[in-house]
Write a structure and sequence with these properties.
Number of domains: 2
Shape: elongated
Largest sheet: 5 strands, parallel
Distance between the termini: 25 Å
Structural class: alpha/beta
Strand order of the largest sheet: 2-1-3-4-5
Amino acid sequence: MSNENILVIEDEEDILALVHYNLAREGYTVTPVTSGEEGLKAAARQLPDLVLLDLMLPGLDGLEICRRLKKSPETAAVPIIMVSARGEEADVVAGLELGAEDYVTKPFSTKVLLARIRNVLRRRERDAAPPDDNEALVISGISIHPGRNEVLVDGRPVDLTYTEFRVLHFLAGRPGWVFTRYQIVNAVRGDDYAVTDRAVDVQIVGLRKKLGRAGQCIETVRGVGYRFKDQD
């Protein structure tokens, strides 16, 4: 059983009650609120371990709440899972770029929601920072060595371009995390690098082709971006 404190910001009372019940049954301490303003006050009173944040809220919407939580030094490290209605892909992308860790879409399965929460909390514990440049990253049969700029798939060397290597290392260093194309560009080349979404897609296509079957680990998240799925 868990005892982490989860702040749930949801204005639909039926959904709030359902989420509260299921989280409490799993052993989580739940702080339920129905508005963004209440959520900010609750986070200031007691720092949560995770925030479950609905995007469509009265008053301050979910994106503004996400922005304020990630901007504040006190709450910047608190992981946020966004809850969105289907068709709000642009808001999901915006939330991820503001620093949210994950999202679920309504209507959602309680089992899926609980699994997402457990995954994010586990990531927080082990720290999602990429491995040290002197350490090899081994995942799903892929060995990535930054210092040598070397990639092996089941012991076989794979010849990647510099950018392909950086994209692979970035995604594989955070398995399960969803990243927008903008986030990938920012991590690989920096804020001032002018590149189109199409250019990122081309890098992914090249990576998948060169990695062979291991390339299936790089998943497309429709309307959002990409993530690396650990198949071990």
